[in-house]
Design a protein that fits this description.
Radius of gyration: 21 Å
Oligomer: single chain
Helix content: 10-25%
Number of strands: 8
Strand content: 25-35%
Structural class: mainly beta
Strand order of the largest sheet: 1-4-6-5
């Protein structure tokens, strides 16, 4: 029987509370494989991958490594983008080196 449980992780004084651990009940100890989310944070897909790994004989551990921020959702916060301040005479070539025209 596949078990999926919440798995909060404490690291350097901060609790990452949106983790999940997946394992098969009754199996002996097994290697743990960490499923790292993409830029958008932990999603159901990542938890499903941990479940797949558990069915393959491992323990799957999916943790959202982003810290919660009090700035998220605050209406008076504005974002600034560095590219808006760039010099239009500068451009990037195909290798990412800055070249002056």
């Amino acid at each position: 029987r596949l078990i999926v449980e919440r798995f909060p992780l404490l690291y350097e004084g901060y609790t990452y509370k949106y983790g999940h651990i997946a394992y098969v009940e009754g199996r002996p100890p097994a290697p743990v494989i960490i499923v790292h989310h993409n830029y958008a944070g932990l999603k159901q897909f990542d938890i499903d991958q941990a479940c797949f790994l558990a069915k393959c004989g491992y323990v799957g551990l999916a943790i959202d490594t982003y810290k919660e921020s009090s700035l998220v959702g605050v209406p008076d916060q504005t974002l600034t983008y560095a590219f808006e301040d760039r010099d239009p005479k500068w451009d990037l070539d195909s290798y990412g080196k800055a070249v002056k025209e």
